[in-house]
Amino acid sequence: MKFKIYLILISMSLFSCTTQNSILYVGTYTNGDSEGIYSFQFNTETGELSNKQLAASTDNPSFITFSEDRKYLYAVGEGKTGAVSAFKVGNENNLELINTADSNGGAPCHISINKNRAVVSNYSGGTVSIYSINSDGSLNEASQVFNHNSDSIASHAHSAQFYKDQLYVSDLGRNGVYNYKLENDAYKLVDSSILNMTEKAGPRHFSLTKGGQFIYIINEYANTITSGKKAAGGFELLQNISTLADDFKAKSYCADIHLSDDERFLYGSNRGENSIAVFKRNTNSGKLEKIQNISVHGDWPRNFTIDPSGKFLLVANQKSSNISVFKIKKETGKLSFLHDIKTDTPVCLLF
């Protein structure tokens, strides 16, 4: 009897150890010591990162994302000749290359997935490519390529997201967020700027609420977040709010943006101030109130993510080659720094 109880206790202990761990994949730049995409074990109770492994050797995987079933991982290859690659997630968290396709533009910097479609944003090429995904996770060559360049303005497509039958594309060079709609299995342009942006704002990334009623755009050049509310024919402007501390006067450039799972808080990263800006969000009106600017304990926070438990926020500091871990206070949304870990040139974090 005592032996059976002992086995049960051991089993419960092992179950607890496995359930409190999540896998974090890290995309990097490989022009230094980094070799590609890495994996870490992340403890969702303590916030500790451990067991670093090279998951896949690949060039400049500066943005990575999962398929909806998490069986496959997709990565851009940011270079003069842009590429996008499909990987199968292995049993030991290693990534097995399935195939690679042309991104149809230079410096692809973002990829997003919606069921059996992918969209890639090419920063220096100024193009946006749409791909269909096969049942084995492989990518077909692009079925559509949108060129946002004009004779007088260079496009810098920076991110894109699907929402139901809509596709939104943030174009830093054209200073607008484009809207495409799926019709007869192809995307067609609806609007080249869903909101009137301030001059030279530089929209980079954005977050949509789950119901699609609100959009929050982080602007690289203006160091602001532009908020919009869904209206007939598009979005109406709610506000522009600074991401920087009132006493910060030096140069800074915004990067990433994320909503908390309950959508009560919004977070944005500042490269230069080297901080995370924290906003309290009115879930009825959609308006934001800045409540904190906290140091990332590193240099150039290009990307950050919130862990699956919602208790931690992790920041990829590109120039200082470290990942910083923060505890999120559930009641207020504010952050407190816990620790960091060194890893070469991290630029994208994926749970």
Automatic annotation (TrEMBL):
An example Gene Ontology CC term for this record: cytosol
Pfam families named in the record: Lactonase
Any GO BP annotation: glucose metabolic process
Top-rank lineage group of the source organism: Bacteria
Gene3D superfamilies from the UniProt entry: YVTN repeat-like/Quinoprotein amine dehydrogenase
GO molecular function: 6-phosphogluconolactonase activity
Signal peptide boundaries: 1-22
TM region positions: none
UniProt entry tagged with the keyword Signal: yes
Keywords attached to this entry: Carbohydrate metabolism, Glucose metabolism, Signal
Family membership noted in the UniProt record: Belongs to the cycloisomerase 2 family.
PANTHER family linked to this entry: 6-PHOSPHOGLUCONOLACTONASE (PTHR30344:SF1), 6-PHOSPHOGLUCONOLACTONASE-RELATED (PTHR30344)
Name of this chain's protein: Lactonase family protein
Species annotation: Wocania arenilitoris
